[in-house]
Specification:
The protein is of the alpha+beta class. It has helices spanning 12-25, 50-57, 65-69, and strands spanning 30-37, 40-45, 75-79, 87-89, 93-109, 118-119, 125-128, 133-151, 164-167. InterPro entries: Man6P_isomerase-2_C, RmlC_Cupin_sf.
Length: 173
């Protein structure tokens, strides 16, 4: 995997462009992107490429053919230096994360009490359970995290509205 290099002062547009070019060079199709999140943003990868996405970024996580047939919502999250996502959980999904480039931290807890922030290890898979409280945290540099949603109700898959925010730096509900 080619290393993407950012600095804490890299402009957001430049970081997004580098990640976009990386994904395209790896043969991934972007179906949507959001560059307007106050903490950074994300790229959504074509669902038809889930097997390739899994094989490239999560080969250490076994998937069944049944899981491949479900919606898995592959994404790349980009978190800015010193920014953080809301303290949140989800009713209809678990998540799998892996830090690929840069730096990021994670906070997690099974209760509403905010746990201790820990640095994410590059290349190490993190599995978040349905209902587990969590937060992705930007450290001293941009962080790029691959993500797969594991929908707990395949007939009613999770979406961006399936976020319960317990605390948010940007006053979102």
């Amino acid at each position: 995997m080619n290393e993407l290099l950012f600095s804490p002062t890299s402009p957001k547009d430049q970081v997004f462009q580098q990640v976009l070019e990386y994904l395209e060079s790896e043969g991934f199709s972007i179906v949507s992107q959001d560059r307007d999140r106050p903490w950074g943003g994300f790229f959504v990868i074509d669902e038809q490429q889930i097997k390739k996405f899994h094989d490239v970024f999560f080969p250490d996580v076994p998937f069944t053919e049944e899981q491949y047939a479900q919606k898995l919502s592959p994404k790349f999250l980009l978190v800015a230096p010193d920014a953080r996502l809301s303290w949140q959980y989800h009713f209809r999904r678990a998540e799998i994360w892996k830090l690929l480039f840069g730096e990021a931290g994670i906070v997690r807890s099974m209760t509403d009490e905010i746990g201790e922030e820990r640095s994410m290890a590059k290349g190490k898979t993190v599995k978040l359970s349905q209902g587990e409280r969590h937060r992705l945290v930007g450290k001293n540099n941009w962080g790029v995290v691959a993500e797969i949603w594991m929908h707990t109700d395949p007939l009613n898959p999770s979406d961006e509205s399936d976020i319960v925010r317990l605390q948010d730096d940007y006053s979102r509900k």
